[in-house]
Amino acid sequence: MDPLAEAKRLFLEALTLQEKGDLERAEGLYRKALTLAPKRPSVMNNLAAVLFSLKKYAEARLVCEQLLEIDPADATALLHLGNCQAQLDSAGEALISYDKALMIRPDFADALTNRGNALLALRRPGEALASHDRALAIAPGSAEALYNRGKALLELKRPEEALASYERALAIKPDYADALNNSGNALVEQGKLEQAEAQYVRAIAIQPDHAKAYSGLGVVRHDQGRMDEALRWFEQALARDASLADAQYNLAVTRLYRQEFEAAWPGHEHRLAFADVRKLVRGNLATVTLYEQLARWQGPEQAVAGAVGIWAEQGIGDHVLYSTLIPELIASGVPFIYEVDQRLVGVYERAFPNGRFVASAEPPQEVLRRASRVMLAGSLPGLFRRSRESFARQPRRLLSALPERVAKYRSRMDALGAGFKVALSWQSRRKGRAGLGKSLPLMQFAPLLELERVHFVDVQYGDTVAERREVEQCSGVRLLHFDEVDYFHDLEAVLAILEACDLLITTSNVSAHLAGALGMPVWLLYLAERPPFHYWAHDGSHRCLWYPSVEIVSAPHFTTWDPLIDHVKERLAREPTHARQGRN
């Protein structure tokens, strides 16, 4: 038989098998066809697509590169190459390939939507959304483009719009399990847990092995405070996909809420594999990649030739939280270089004069990159806090403010008259699900302002002028605010103001961490015994394990803020001697 005719027959047979999903046999026939008719673009493109579907990304990329040597203007080959590069964690290279494809075919909708996904991976969600919108202008009936558009909107913290995009995708493709799952994610971000649960259940009904939907049900139960059930759902997710990083991480975090520390910390180490957490660990994903390439410190039992570099992670509250392990790090005898927010470097140098501290930066300072071994600060608890009993070693006071600045602010407060000086903080910068239950309007605290011989000091970062004015107009009480202080940049001043107060009343935000590190009395408020983060969970004692001076003020029946604030008011009225308890 003529080789070209046989190659065509093999190609058509392989195409039929590919359409039926018999990918391994299709791969074999495409390869046979290429031995008879080498360098045939149609065969090579289809082979690349099959290899991609079989998750043989490196092989598929090689086929695409060979094809582009034959025809550099093959837009389909560029699309396939970009897809392979994206799967091989080369989103930047993928973006270049998609852009090349679009220079050849500007109306290539698949290239536009995949380009959007690459931009999302590069943490450029606004550009990703624009790319998906361009794809939809060309192919308005593309359920995939609508689904990917929803992902970009979720990343932009616009869950309502994301949900609308998923609903449009589902109107086109009602059995789109991934869209159902992500619509559940959008509803979770809005705190609409019952509706989210229904979407996850629908996704599982369509695709019974949809591990992410099982994990989503775990998130719902977790946010409902039903931790036992949350554990079971995460375990079911992992039974279907043992490599599912979000389930591994969420299972670990749920165990942390339950204070099952020894079982939790190993799973917590999967956080870099979970995309939602990975992008929060540092300000630049390139820093995370750099960290992963360096030799990891395994703990004090591992001998090191030089200093260990402790890299900061996540926000300033996390910097302070994990730094409570510094005393034990020092006691281990291992030399270290500790990265901390630049606004606090002087504070830590004062607290630990024999330690070495550097300001966090992107990329990290060279001294950290060249350290003998490295570890993320969030991994320290896995070394030193493996049981509830180990928290007895938490320092009651870690940091201190400059005495002269404390005296300055205390003098200003004393001018208000005799009485209790209470710092107030009520807002978190966190958005979406992570911010739910962490913030309330200052006006909700108005009942407290009626108390006699209690003076309130605004320590909330950000612009609070309008809220303070509203409170003053309604209650006649003016909160003290140090207008000359830059509450964001001058954390030395914030620490001094807190130190000068008798008590901090706050929701979960950075003020709670700073005051806890100072060892000052803190009443930390959250609703319905549902702590917003694992470190605010308690065992019934209403004391924070991480900060001994922090008292948790919550109860199952406080499901809204008004009764909780009334409870705080009653406590504050009868406990004026609470000032400065626990400071030593």
Oligomer: single chain
Number of strand elements: 9
Helix content: 40-55%
In the predicted model, the low-confidence regions spanning at least 5 consecutive residues are 578-584
Strand order of the largest sheet: 6-5-7-8-9
Using brief descriptors, characterize the structure shown.
584 residues; alpha/beta; Serine Threonine Protein Phosphatase 5, Tetratricopeptide repeat; Rossmann fold; five-stranded parallel sheet; four-stranded parallel sheet; elongated
Folded structure, characterized:
- The protein is of the alpha/beta class.
- The protein folds into three domains: 34-276, Serine Threonine Protein Phosphatase 5, Tetratricopeptide repeat (Alpha Horseshoe), CATH 1.25.40.10; 282-393, no CATH class; 403-578, Rossmann fold (3-Layer(aba) Sandwich), CATH 3.40.50.
- 54% of the residues lie in helices and 7% in strands.
- It contains 28 helices and nine strands.
- It has helices at residues 3-20, 23-36, 41-53, 57-70, 75-87, 91-104, 109-121, 125-138, 143-155, 159-172, 177-189, 193-206, 211-223, 227-240, 245-257, 261-268, 275-281, 285-292, 316-323, 326-331, 345-351, 366-369, 381-384, 403-414, 465-475, 491-500, 510-518, 561-574, and strands at 308-311, 336-340, 357-359, 373-376, 420-425, 454-458, 503-506, 522-525, 550-553.
- β2 (336-340), α21 and β3 (357-359) form a beta-alpha-beta unit.
- α3 packs antiparallel against α4 (57-70) and α11 packs antiparallel against α12.
- The longest helix is centred in the N-terminal third of the chain and has 18 residues, at 3-20.
- It starts with a helix and ends in a 10-residue tail after the last helix.
